[in-house]
Amino acid sequence: xxxxxxxTHYSNxxxxxxxxxxxxxxYSLQPxxxxxxxxxxxxxxxxxxxxxxxxxxxxxxxxxxxxxERTLQRYHAEDRLSPDxxERTLxxxxxxxxxxxxxxxxxxxxxxxRTPLPAFNYQPPIQLLDTSFGFQLIEDELGRIEYGVFA
Length: 151
Prior knowledge:
- The protein is mainly alpha-helical and 151 residues long.
- It has one domain.
- Helices cover 64% and strands 0% of the residues.
- It has 9 helices and no strands.
- Helix 1 (2-10) packs antiparallel against helix 3 (31-40), helix 7 crosses helix 8 and helix 7 runs parallel beside helix 9.
- The longest helix is centred in the middle third of the chain and has 21 residues, at 83-103.
């Protein structure tokens, strides 16, 4: 019961799903919202929606989340993910939101994620998403793109 009370203080599943469906819309979540949602756990169906939006395979998502494909497949749509998996999912959702903001189109952003780039030692950005340092490198590069600073 206490977990439910704590969760409603931060957000709800519908708001998080809307955040994934409409990045950059009125559903942008604040840091304390993200902390609370991470602790409570997001629904598997929200992760599935995000993966679909990013055109990521189960294999790609499992590598980013540090979970086996089989374990990920065992989750049902209404199951809550662990705090660690939820946190990484939220990091990915924030990155998606930022990518849409910069590229103005999901397809352009997902294509960019799969393109080997000099800024990433000729690796596609998607290959860097298995570490928080990789997320930060990608965020930094998106900032440079936004301001027209190319390395």
